[in-house]
Amino acid sequence: MLHPFIEDRSYLKVYAIVWTILAIVQSFLLIYKFDFDTTIAILDSVIFNYLFAIMGASIWFVGAYADYEKQSSQSTIIKQIFSGIFLVVIWVYSANWILDKVITNADYINSDFTFWRYILGGFYYVIISIVFYLILYNENMKHELEQKIKYEKNATNAELKALKSQVNPHFLFNSLNSISYLTISDGIKAQEMLVRLSDYIRYSLRKEENQFTTLKDELENLHSYIDIEKIRFEDRINYSENIESDLNNNKVPHLILQPLMENAIKYGVYESENEVPISLEITSDNDYIKIIIRNPIEKSSYIHKGEGIGLNNISERLKLLYNTVGLLKTESDNNIFSATILIPKPE
Questions:
Q1: Residues of the chain with CATH 3.30.565.10
Q2: Which CATH class is domain 166-344?
């Protein structure tokens, strides 16, 4: 674990400023309280304070490399006490030795004066230890929070991938069944359907690791899907769309339109022998891209009960991607079912 003074230089600046202030305060006290010579007061303050500042920086390692899970509180306190005594003793003796070399007349250094040095050094050690422990605690909390966010993001991505994977198998199963049938009845249509299906699969695989794509790419993939379904259902699908062209480069969730259209075809075309109109409308609505798909539906339809797996899938993906509920709304009016998606625009 890096020392905070190395990892964040702002800590070092504050540390240096605090010790400079302490040296200045001590100089004034020695001059005006104890009538010290100005030069001696300044030298004494600078040597003692800055020497402790240098030695005190090592207190970080006493706490940073302690194994708090294995050590008891008692052993931690004892370790700190012995570390403090050792550092303060070394500090006092080193500072006195330097002063004796620098100041020829250092008679003011007596036993009483030295005693108060020890007391002051112990106070400094406690304060610095507390500050370092607070920094260490804050860094550990930040690290744990980052790990938690990382784990939650990974879990969300895994869930999103699982939801996306539910989109493909049902469609692929139906498409392959249709191709199998068409190879016997209409080879040309079977070949065309295979081409469209390969385009769809290529798009799905290319974007597998990305949760977003442009609306333009998503629409191209939707058209490939609709072409496949038109081959399956021939003239029973009457598809129309109304899309604002300036929205083409906006980001939307990958593979969000196909399951929406699959739902419309499943509960509109599957249960009808006649031509079924399905419309797609994409417009700008304030801070959202508004996507609406409408299709006729029978009153007895399963989707009318709100149990459509595809719609639940879309709702869950939108909630995970945008951390917002209510982005998918459905309603039925005069046997016309509509599903509306609101895609938040980037700020």
A1: 166-344
A2: alpha beta
